[in-house]
Specification:
The structure holds 2 protein chains of 2 kinds.
Chain A: E1 6-8, E2 11-13, E3 17-19, E4 41-47, E5 60-63, E6 66-69, H1 78-85, E7 95-100, H2 105-116, E8 123-127, E9 131-132, E10 138-139, H3 144-155, E11 162-166, H4 173-183, E12 187-190, E13 194-197, E14 199-200, E15 205-206, E16 212-216, H5 221-235, E17 239-242, H6 248-257, E18 261-264, H7 267-270, H8 274-289
Parallel strand pairs in A: 3-4, 3-18, 4-7, 7-8, 8-11, 11-12, 12-17, 17-18
Antiparallel strand pairs in A: 1-2, 5-6, 6-16, 9-10, 13-16, 14-15
Helix pairs in contact in A: 2-3, 3-4, 4-5, 5-6, 6-8
Chain B: E1 6-19, E2 22-30, E3 41-44, E4 55-58, E5 61-64, E6 68-76, H1 80-85, E7 93-100, E8 112-117, H2 121-133, E9 139-145, E10 162-166, E11 173-174, H3 177-184, E12 194-198, H4 201-213, E13 218-221, E14 237-239, E15 246-248, H5 249-252, E16 255-257
Parallel strand pairs in B: 8-9, 8-12, 9-10, 10-11, 12-13
Antiparallel strand pairs in B: 1-2, 1-7, 2-6, 3-4, 3-7, 5-6, 13-16, 14-15
Classes of the chains: A alpha/beta, B alpha/beta.
Bound molecules: flavin-adenine dinucleotide, flavin mononucleotide and FE2/S2 (inorganic) cluster.
Amino acid sequence: MSKLSITAGGLKLKNPVLIASGIGGYGAELIPLLDLEAIGGVVTKTIFEEPRPGNPPPRIAETPNGMLNSIGLEGPGIERYEKEKLTRLEGLDTRIVVSIGGYGPEDFAKLAERLDDLDRVDAIELNISCPNVKEGGLNMSTHPNLAEEVVVATRRVTKKPLWAKLTPNVTSISDVGRACLHGGADALSAINTLLGMRIDVDRREPLLARGMGGLSGPAIRPVALAKCFELVRALNCDVVGIGGVEDTSSALEFLVAGCKAIQVGTVVYAEPQVPVDIVAGIEAYMDKHGFTELSQVIGTLKVEETLLIGPKATKAK
Amino acid sequence: MDQEPRLDRARVRAHEETGPGFYWLQLELPADYPETLPGQYLNLKTNEHGFKFRRPFGVVEFRREPQAVLIELYYAVVGSGTEAMSRWRPGDDVDCLGPLGVGYSVDKAQPALLVAGGRGAAPLLYLYRLLKESGHASIQFAFGVRDEELLFGMDRLQETDVLLASDNGSVGFHGNILQAIETERPSWLLGQPVIYACGPEALLAATGGFAKRHALQAQVSMEGVYGCGLGLCRGCAVPLVDEERFLMQCLEGPVLDAHRVDWEKVPHV
Ligand SMILES: Cc1cc2nc3c(=O)[nH]c(=O)nc-3n(C[C@H](O)[C@H](O)[C@H](O)COP(=O)(O)OP(=O)(O)OC[C@H]3O[C@@H](n4cnc5c(N)ncnc54)[C@H](O)[C@@H]3O)c2cc1C
Ligand SMILES: Cc1cc2nc3c(=O)[nH]c(=O)nc-3n(C[C@H](O)[C@H](O)[C@H](O)COP(=O)(O)O)c2cc1C
Ligand code: FES
């Protein structure tokens, strides 16, 4: 399958299909339903230093062709993650990207330093789209300076590939992306969920206890694609495309737009085998078009530059 | 239960509307399908296109035939997913994830008091059969519905074991099923029965309070919204008494010890 292999953000992958953070648990849970060795890798659920119980229910709601979640980054904390979760992935021939979270740059650095010692960790994804209590509940990836500080602090303590995961809930995703690259990120993962809401009109209450939550699933794909295209075009960097991938053709949209790899999220809940189907589908597509390597697909979007809207290519600072 | 979930194409063998908007569905699965117990469920795909959560349904009957396993469900049409199911025809293939969850854990030594609310009777009909077949000494079935029209599965029960109640008085005791037990069958509460309940969460919460008042054990089957049924999305969180963590009902339940649940924090009970 070497014709599907690709290096994304400093990480060599056997194929460009990964499972997104928060979707496949800590990886091993999906093993009965999906051959993890058939895909490029798994991004594990964002882990914090301390255990987090998560938000009160209701935490999820279905939406047209998607879902809302306000899980609240529930997790067992790094100690138990390392002992009980990561060890279950030992010996698997697939890439493990560990997603980490924190309330400030030091928290990220602490976790990254610890993960740097572990061979099973192939790369680190920085979930900077989580709450920053120190800055009064702001979200680090909405502020280029804060985002950059997180990347700089983690870059200092690890040589592993660093992917910065961006929120779409900003006016200019490329400003934040540029700052992350400047701080030393090897790739930008985009996008995290969009802020959304549903209301139960009989009770006149929001469907989620926290009122609002993150929208994901096929419904967000056009937004995700536009954000990824903007990043590729403005920053000419490695982008890992995320958002509403549900089948081969939707995965290919991101690759043709210039993403080096893609992550499959929400649809895995309903159809756990989809990531494996996409790998086979991409290969079939390449055969059909006579492509012998993935680089003949990636970033091959045909556009008339003069007609395009959106920020134009600029060099990263 | 250390069963691994699997994905199968289940074939619809029979499908009937047994009451207004209420259906009985018989599915055929491969002969090697794992034993599925009362309280465990299947997570069915109800949409052909686009994304939707799978829909969970408790198993009402599990039988092995030489060439296949037969699983029966009862379901009510309440929204788009069950509406789509109601159009399934015999011969259709259904995308089935299962068997999932942890079911009832029977205490052989204690009398069994089954408490059903509406369509929640489904898994209890199966539990009832297994208890009967095992020669369990004392089995009582308390079944509450909004209206007589919503009773189902009565042919699977022995009349002498059953107590009925309805919110509108159309059948049995006029009022809720727990009041019915206290007023009409107080003897059922003697001998430390274990309560096995399934129904709307308001009934389950009331059952929790009832069991506490009578100092009884109670196992209740929760009915939340499931994003995955696999413990992955962390969406089906149940607040617990004396524990900071939430429990994932799709994985550690749906059947839970009623005394562990912090009912005040369960939405809409
Ligand atoms: C473990 C388990 C076992 C189950 N077993 C059975 C069974 O054996 N038989 C059975 O009939 N059911 C069973 N259920 C319930 C069943 O899964 C649901 O009824 C089904 O998923 C509903 O799907 P739907 O698409 O038809 O309805 P949905 O459209 O999902 O709606 C479900 C219900 O929520 C309400 N609702 C949804 N969204 C809103 C909103 N925005 N505002 C107000 N109300 C809203 C609807 O009115 C409806 O009553 C079980 C559930 C669980 C968790
Ligand atoms: C229930 C749920 C939990 C999630 N948890 C995380 C998480 O812990 N960390 C993270 O970076 N993203 C998390 N995400 C976001 C996904 O990784 C992904 O960015 C997003 O869902 C968009 O992709 P999709 O449309 O394919 O799902 C979560 C998404 C869902 C639906
Ligand atoms: S439904 Fe996804 S964790 Fe329970």
